[in-house]
Amino acid sequence: MSDAERLFESLARAIIDADETAAVQLSETILAKGFDSAKAIERGISVGMEKVGDFFEKSEYFIPDLLDCAAVAERATAILRKGLAKEPVSRGKIVMGTIFGDTHDIGKNIVALFMEAAGYKVLDLGKDVSARRFIDAAVQWKADVLAISTLMTTTRGNIQNVIEQLRLDGKRESFLILIGGRAVTREFAQTIGADGYAENAAETIRLLDKF
Fold it and tell me: Which of 140, 150, 181, 186 is the most exposed place for a label (fewest CB within 10 A)?
């Protein structure tokens, strides 16, 4: 194993352990030695966050653990970005938010952190977002993906409004539509014509990587 790979592996472990001090030191060492920052993000931070997601799925980690690990990943990513080109290659641009009528956003915020750690550019519109605001933001930002969440059964129908409005605007084929949240299911996603459904942050990243 090369020195660079050892550092990337150690960085992944620091993310898993939510060890900010180690993650910062490792990221700065990677920069100082001139190793590939993009590979460090991919093989260190992304791998670490993927493992964090696995632990969460197995109920070995909980929401506070996810938030701690994601915060460390964000700090390390900010350091490593200094070693990238001024306009780093992104894996895709995502506009996301919680649908109109729903003011829950903790789960969405975790997913956003995972997306950014995995190398996606994210525009988070927040909560209680209307169909028109979703669409206008996606068009203006030239997004690849619209990611919409809701935790309330009373508002999940509003996700369908986004898809219907996109069709009316003649822009349905311009974006992938991913949905998530406690109030929706894979079957619901298929029913309303969404492109995919993810149950949690780790599954969201795996789903995005397939497109």
Answer: 140
